[in-house]
Amino acid sequence: MTKRKKILLGVLVVFLLLLAGTYAAMAFYFEEHFYSNTVIDGMDCSQMTAAQVKEKLKEEVESYRLTVTGRGEAKETLTAWDLSLSYKDDGAVDRLLKGQNHWLWPAGAFREHTYQELVSLEVSDEGISKAVDGLAMMQEENMTAPEDASITVENNDFTIVPEKEGTTLNRDKVTAAVKKAVLAGEKTLDLDAADCYEHPAVTAEDEALKERLKNLQQLVSASLTMDFGSGRTETVDKNLLITWLTQDEAGNDVIDSAKVTEYVQQLADKYDTVGHHTFTTTGGETVTLEKGDYGWVLDVETTAANLAQAIQEHQQGAFEVIYSSSAKSREENDIGSSYIEISIEQQTVWCYVDGELVVETPVVTGCVNNGTETPKGGVWKVKSRKSPYTMKGKPDENGEPSYVEEVTYWVPYSEDFTVGLHDLASRTAFGGDIYITNGSHGCVNTPLDAMKKIYDVVSYGFPVIVY
């Protein structure tokens, strides 16, 4: 072997020895260090020892921040300290480094090595709960409760008011969402997107709510008009029915029957005329008449029942009011233009038919001195007409009538049929002050010819005015 070849061989041996040493040195280096381009949980750990990586991971955990956002402008930050977080060395980093084949470093040193979810956290449920409870947006005074969609009245019609979401957070959901975000290493948490808010139980699209709206509209759809004469009308329609709505024991929407009855009673108070008459006498005087049984009396019970049924059936148009007592006219002046007028003071009777005077006669009314005065200050109705008729007084102690009197014409008008107009053959004088000392037992003694005329024109219900 020539000298030159020996030199070349020596150089080659030295090179190979240097190369082998370098390879071995790098292998030993990467036995304790991660390859270049190593990323662990997003953190560059190139050529770092396991201890260095763990220290960096610890720093990363300690610097952790979770930004929590809510509805509106709500935004808060939770730190690792707030959350009681700490790094837990569970040997994952050591295992990862040990699994790195350092003898094959030429193949691994120039490739990218990415590892996820190697950070192990010490997560305290108590710490997370405490952090959640400390959020300002979790405080009761900062939360607005959600509002269910509801039905309201606007412009005398029903409409659905949409629900309101509010800002009330569900603590369990918030706690679970925060824990999930922390374990996943998330930096932000949107509580709205994570469905952590309490929701209204009823929305505007709720079928039961829509059905209730339809039912309410039907309940108040009736429109009924009552005619009380002289242009006086009363109407029951949606505007009024809305105020009568209530709910029964089962929670169903209904028209309050008590309100219906109350309304009908108000109509009776307004339009009943028995005991409520003002009358202009033949002499032009205006008198108030508060007694008697003549006039209109609304049958509250029957009318209320009929009205409730008509409302339930959604009826439209005229509604007939039922009366327990009626008069000759439904106009505001229900006495009309046909009536008997009796003046106790003037001892005179006038009888009008359709506004025409058919009788004017002196009479004798109940005796003042005997205490059998004719009731006055009211309007009564004729109860019947008899011809001839036998009048009998009240029974005495022996059961015998106090008097018996045969009359040709008898027209009773008092409620008990004991007071009326009649002729009296034994009486020859009428008018003046006879009634004071020689008056009747309470009836209106009338001359025979005048009594016949009255008898011929009156009938049941004919008004009799006494003042």
Task: Please characterize this protein's 3D structure.
It is built from 13 helices and 29 strands. With 467 residues, it is an alpha+beta fold. Helix 10 crosses helix 11.
Distance between the termini: 169 Å
Tell me the Rg in angstroms: 54 Å
Count of runs of 4 or more consecutive helical residues: 13
Largest sheet: 5 strands, mixed
Q: Strand order of the main beta sheet, please?
A: 22-21-20-29-23
Task: Tell me what portion of residues adopts beta-strand conformation.
Answer: 15-25%
Q: Output the structural class.
A: alpha+beta
Which regions are unreliable across 5 or more consecutive residues at pLDDT < 50?
Answer: none
What's the rounded overall pLDDT mean? 93
Range of helix content: 25-40%
Task: Write the SSE topology.
Layout (H helix, E strand, L loop, with lengths): L2 H30 L5 E3 L2 E2 L5 H13 L2 E5 L5 E5 H4 L2 E2 L4 H7 L6 H4 L4 E3 L5 E2 L2 H9 L16 E5 L2 E5 L9 H13 L4 E3 L16 H13 L3 E5 L5 E4 L1 H4 L3 E3 L5 E3 L1 H15 L5 E4 L5 E4 L7 E2 L1 H13 L3 E3 L4 E3 L13 E5 L4 E6 L2 E7 L15 E4 L7 E4 L11 E4 L2 E3 L7 E3 L11 H5 L5 E2 L2 H10 L5 E4 L1
Parallel strand pairs: 1-6, 3-10, 11-18, 20-29, 27-28
Antiparallel strand pairs: 1-2, 3-4, 5-7, 8-9, 11-12, 13-14, 15-16, 17-19, 20-21, 21-22, 23-29, 24-25, 26-27
Helix pairs in contact: 6-7, 10-11
